[in-house]
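Input.
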Amino acid sequence: MSLKATCFLSLGIFVLSQGAFGQGINVQLECKKQDCICGEPVLLRTVVSNVSGKDFKSQIGRYGLGPEFGFTLYVAEADGEFEDFLTPWPKKRLGISKPPLQYELFRDRHSLPGDISAGQKADRVDMLIVPKPGEYRLKAVLKERDGTVYASEPIRLRVLPLEEKEDSVSRLGKQDFVISLGFSIYYYHYVERAWGDAQAAKRFKEVAPLIMEQYKDSVFREYVVYAEAMAQCRAPQSDSDVAAERGKELAQQFIKEYPRSWLLPDIYRKLFWVYIQQKDKDGAGEVRKRALEVAPNASVLRHVKQANVDELLRQKEAQPGLRMNGR
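Output.
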């Protein structure tokens, strides 16, 4: 649910767009790829920096995704006019018949804080699936209730048909299959289960092991390992829950294989709550420490950062059936 662009990847170094300044608030939209395959998950990171020298307190309180929540993304095709990506009609321009962001509005774990201390930063990561090839421009926008707007500089994204940028996953199916796979990953990213028809979810479960084990060169592999780890790491039913143990194994695999991934904060969040559910104080403490070292500004980790592990474990002891899964 996020757009990405004008970051040119070269030998692992990417150039960031320079965020616009408004009242000492700098908004920057980042991406790691200049182009992607149609249907490939595209990660965007919005970094908000308070460079004003004084604490910033928003009238909104928290920047959740959606115009009414203060944070949104604007999109334009090629050099066309920018439109709010979260309003219904511009999606038709991207060939999107079903708004891919609608579920996020119910539970935006990635929302930016409304209060940012002087000199501090906050960031959120969004995922976008674009099912129509083309050239796009994107920008992130924060809006205050008093009308003040903070916007990033635009970035560009080029979306190529599968046949123009062939991926090993193409052996499993054609362009429509790749788009379907991308949307399945998107839903795991935000709601941690495959929304949509049961057949699509079943298909994802069938192809996920193939991508993880046989198509390791695919650009989809990072996201598939992530999606499976997130799905299996749902709050376990017991200390010996088999799915949770598999989820922990996949999460640790992801951390090892993709140490620079922007999806790591989500993985660490999930791991933390699994350890709390399993009453593993040392595991929860270690995960929190590693998470905050890797992504100290990630908004998705705010509940992990604020959690009182001892108090959570006392609650778990008092109510063994209580399921701890955070937000």
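Residues 1-22, 93-106 have pLDDT under 50 and may be disordered.
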